[in-house]
Amino acid sequence: MAKAKEMTMEDLMAACGDINVPKEGDVLEGAVISVTKNGVWLDLGTYGTGLVVGPEVTDVEDGAKVGDTMSASVIYQETDEGYVLLSLRKATRERVWEKLTRMMNEGEVFKVKPFDANKGGLLIEYETVRGFLPVSQLSTEHYPRVSDKDEILLRLNELIGQALDVVVLDVDKPESKLIFSEKAAMKDKTEALLGKFNIGEKVNGKVTGVVDFGIFLNVQGVEGLVHISEISWDRVDNPSDFVKVGDEAEVQIIGIENEKISLSMKRLTDDPWVKKVKDIKVGDKIKGEVSRITPFGAFVKLPEGIEALVHISELSEKHIASPDEVVAEGKKYDFKVISLDIDNHKLALSMKESKPASKEKPVKDSAEKGEEKAEAKEKKAVKEAPKKKEVKKDTEKAEK
Predict the structure, then answer these.
(1) pLDDT tens digits, residue range 146-185?
(2) Which of 137, 197, 199, 226 has the smallest count of CB within 10 Å of its CB?
(3) pTM metric for this prediction
(4) Is 94 buried (19+), middle (13-18) or exposed (0-12) by CB count in 10 A?
(5) Are residues 180 and 115 in the same domain?
(6) Is the same domain home to 288 and 246?
(7) In angstroms, rounded to a whole number, what is the distance separating the alpha carbons of residues 168 and 104?
């Protein structure tokens, strides 16, 4: 006689039709019916009995009491003994992912403490789920305004263990991706601070970084940048020649945009260029020394120390392939001022317009030439008329 096939719990539950079979990863809730050295037993209702196992169980064994409700995640549908194997940690992670998604959607601000750092940012663990806070998402106060990667890491290490206000920027559970942002968490506060500033206002700021293209300052909690072109009226090769990190500096606000303010140091003083060109007018004749030659023209140093440009098209009446066909560095020439742009510090000169017009014979048009020819022909005819009469008389005498 053939041995009957043994039915599993899943077979029995499936045969009932309306009873759902738990799947791996499902989070089930049950009442505690027993706490033993093997784990915590739960009454799962229609799913039968479940056993919560794992190292994390030791944290709840002492506090678990019969009748307490507990949630756990299914890690095995059915053991040989017929109960569902459960895990508290997996259930907790599931709840955390759901919580993080909700917090992202609501833009909730909360605190985290980084536990490690690398050159790209800070590593953070939030309730068993690990995430990342990129350098680009740090607030103005904590952003490392340095270019050296080793120095960046040193600055980030100083933030390990500090409580930071953040929001969830991105959540992707299947990819185990969790990104935080401190900068976004400060957005409302930053906008409120920006509302207090006005363009043209003079403010004090603390230098937080010096880079090739300018100087960063913290102005009352808002990030500001003094671009290299706004540091001094003179040419600036290295911003670090003017300030260092930690210095206090007075600046003028010249722009407010995208949660940042544009600042200027040079506009707190008078523009010396304007003073130097106050007596120069378009049309003036001026002498200057060619200081630099480029493919598009020549730069000229004028007596007041002003640098002006002579475009290649203004160097000669004739077409030239290169400025050095006409001018040479270090030599002085006569020029004429053809344009003056005070706002943009631009002074344009012309060399060809500074020369007197050449004396050339006027070119006559074809009509004038035709009239002259007709007049000359008529004069010739009048002059030769007597001669023709004399020839006619001699001919008549000969015939007689």
Answers:
(1) 777 888 899 899 999 999 999 999 999 888 899 999 988 8
(2) 199
(3) 0.53
(4) middle
(5) yes
(6) no
(7) 5
